[in-house]
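1st attempt posting a full record on here, be nice pls
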Amino acid sequence: MQKGPEYFVEAAAKVLAKAPKTRFVMAGSGDMMNKMIRLAAERNISDRFHFTGFMKGKQVYEVLKASDVYVMPSVSEPFGISPLEAMQCGVPSIISKQSGCAEILDYAVKVDYWDIEAMADAMYSIITYPAMHEFLKVEGKKEVTLNVTNQPIRRLLDDVLHQRDLQYTMTGHSIVVTLKTAGNVKLVSGTVVDSNGEPIIGANVVEKGTTNGTVTDISGNFSLNINDSGILQISYIGFNTQDVAVNGKSSLMINLKEDTQKLDEVVVVGYGVQKKSNVTGSVASIKTDDFNDLNMDVSHVIQGRVAGVNVSNGYIIIRGAASINGADPLWIVDGVPGSAPNFNDIESIEILKDAASTAIYGARGAGGVILVTTKKGKIGKLSINARVNFGIETPIDLPDMLHTADFIDRKLAVGFPNNPNSGWDNPASLPDTDWEDLVWRNAFRQNYFLQMTGGNEKTTFNMSAEFYKNQFIERYSFEDAGNFRVASQTNISKRVKFSEILTVGFNNTDPHLYGQTNNDYVYYRQVPTMVPYDNTNEAGGGWGKHPAGGYYEGPNHVATLMSHHENERRFWARANAILDWEIINDLKFQANFSANFDSHANNLFLESWNLGSLSQQDYYSKDYGSGYDLRMLYTLTYDHTFGEKHYVKGMVGYEAYRATASSAGGWKNGFLVQPSDDISLGTGDKDVSGTKTEGRSLSQFARVNYAYDDRYLLEASIRRDGYDNFGPENRFGVFPSASVGWNVGKESFVKDNITWMSQLKLRGSYGKIGNNTIPQFLYEPSFTNNYLYYSYDGQNTQRGFWYSNVANATIKWEDVAQWNIGVDASFLDNRLNTTIEYYDKKTSDMLYSVGVPPSAGPSSEPFSETSSYRANIGKISNRGFEWMVQWRDSYKDFRYDVAFTLSTNKNKVVKLSDQVNPIIWAGSDAALNSSIYRTENGQPMGQMYGYVVDGIIQDQAEIDALNAQSPDGLYQQAGTAPGDLKYKDLNGDGKVTNEDKTYIGNPWPDLMYGLNINLSWKGFDLSMGWLGNAGVDVFNSAKLYERSFYGDYNTTYKVYEAWSPTNRATSHPRVTKEDPNGNFKNVSSYFVEDGSFFKLKNLHFGYNLPKSILSHLKIEGLKFYINCDNLFIITKFQGDPELGGGYLERNMYSVKRAPSTRTIMGGLSLTL
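the predicted structure (as tokens):
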């Protein structure tokens, strides 16, 4: 390690960039040899390196005689004899200033061992300029040659060494030559670690101004005798050199900081990589090393960590809603479109946000692009990592339903009749069933992960396997899933390598029932007076029947769950084969072939039951299907620097894709044995169905980058896409982009004068991208037979067809044009980093359904009186601001990294169609008398629309006064009474009508922000991910069921907060059986609540056992940790307002909401 070989390899890589025909030989067989072999491979220069191993005298002489230059980059060698041997052979030598022989040699080139640039320049100059080579050869040989005869050895040494301030000692047949020293010398010990507290092996520790030094061992420890007033200089590749004053201390702990300026981060971009400092588009990068043990999916990692990205309940929207038809981000995994992979297999994530970054993906880039690079093998010994996670997921947002006595009390209080058969006169004699406890549970979750990686110069590999076994919070539902992945790379020759990635997986699920068709997520329709089981109901399946009195005719939820036997099985496989060929220096060709296969087998059996007035018929359905897609992708890339300052990179590519899928299934009823595994046993009605789909696309693309001296940056790209869902008149689309950047921080007037500024870059971009989320075959007239049945004889059923759509031969992608400006800045040695951006994103040619006369023929449903025509006609605007600031630093053993993100987005519908005031209505509830969300020109998408509540009417006199002002004597409703909501008369006509409705809420936040904190001290680490939304509204339609009695539903204890003559100081209206004022029927601002929140989304706490303990057990690493999700929230809202949803309706807290949960998981990570 004292020889400094790593500096030699790094310098050699720089020499090869200018002189690619140069060959390098490294002699020796020490503990650094394998590391240097790996380093040469990582720098892609293995074909120019030869490692000889240990050599003896004559072999050394022969190698020296055949060499043009000798290099000894010693870190702290007292006196090395080998440079003298090289010079005596007539070989020019380069030595480090820190080596002992640097004190005595005049005709050797001397450089600091850490100065890679100077070392590379010296090597390049000697092999390039013959005159310099000849001078060093001749003068160097003279300097180390001395002809003396018949003289004692001691006299010779005295004469030669005295003038060079050297001293020697003779022991037996050995002569030790050292520098003359003075002062008080003491032994100093210490440990060198990185910012994570991990020991740095092979760090150079030198007494400053001398050649006295050593290197750290495998535990980062060192010991060195130095002057007690001396200064230690500690250095290692990739870290800032640090000076530490001894000041009489005998023990030191030294924390080296990464040199982020020397190690310029590389980020993945579309079809390639770029230096982060030279990126001109909007690209956010996430390295997954900090999240390996957090047990999160990819969307949770992105959430709150990337400005401008809205993530809620799995939905990801980048820079606002670009279309009413949706514009989800495109996932690119290892270069090809796909879906989010297993998080444990991810190496890095890049989010491309602006058009300059995403235009290279053309018609699929409108929603942004998420690039995922998975883990590959690394040269070195086999490394094994195993992780185990287990814990509990708990529902935390379930309603507190009325128990029997309170249920009867409130029912009677609001006007429901007391049927003599109901038993309400004696509540204690009735059941008191807690349906929430029977339906929900604390779900046990567990997963296991195993990864192996390793390889040599020829082949590397990374293998992983993962298995999940999870319960869902709804009883009787679970999921088993697993996957296996292998990635390998083989260097076929010096210029050709082959990589493959294969992943296979399965899912076996008994899915939860809540939220499926005709089922709510939260079960408000229940009564405590009904029992789940009744042995006397043998004909009805033994399930509890409706209670006597006829006041409840709803479901028995236990019967619903336990009679529902559903199983979904899925098998899938993904394969990538990648061939990389460096045709000539700087010209590289890549062929990427990918194939995906999916298959499923779904079975559903519903047992029959009868509860009295509600029954279910038995039903058995089976569905099988499979599909595959094939993709071939070719790129040719040229990457070269001309004249040391003109960097040019060009790339062209071609992509072709084809997919096909089919399914077949059927259903039957009339089973005597229930449940049954054999569908043929059914004797009742039956039907069969099947589908087949195909898809194709063809693309060509290109990009060029230019950088002058890494200061002035330019990028341009273009893509041509053709898809089979585009009409014949618009089959191909072209998507260009351009961006520029200026690295101001690299200008001399900044670099030389503003020392506290590490980086400053200005950038701007403009581009056009597309959104192709449009159905197939809109350019063709089509017929369908869905939902249409005929019977001509009363027994046999026939299916008919009808004309379903008007063809549009011009149908095409939706256009999205976006410009972006940004500033990237870093300060104080890159400890403080910030990015500020502003964007303007405009969608045109948005697909919209335009009404056509019924006489045109087509309709979306049989016998419908409405018809529509899909056309590219709409326009949407999104504008926003993004800010990220990060501070990362360390103090001794304490390391911290704090990042804050903030973003805004203003969405506006510019145009839906050319019709007069076109409106889209969306969102409903069975208890409401109108739709909730309205989209129209000039407004943000999906706004809440209804009456504005102006308090609660307190007495009849107030009602009389309002009616007196009305032209027809009625302000609201005939049944309006004290305790009802009062609505505002916005148009001033003296009465409340539909014309008084207005916009009452916005489901899109004014501000999204995130705070991420990572702390570590010694073996402990703590990570917190905070998430916040401000200026956002929630439509709480759950109030319909939690604060009143709807139909035969139960309600919650919140009903006691309703207005009454003795409870006037409330904002909740009276509860009545009929609700004549429509308090709980009209869409109004009563249901709109502030959805702003700030929550601790995830928390991780872990402890790594010390390596000093593990080394005795032959264990590389062992960590124990705990992960918590959804642990804490600050909000005015009654539940969890992080709801999200689609584009035209979102942030609705309703019976269809998924119950919010809290998860606490424990884990263990073992590395061998």
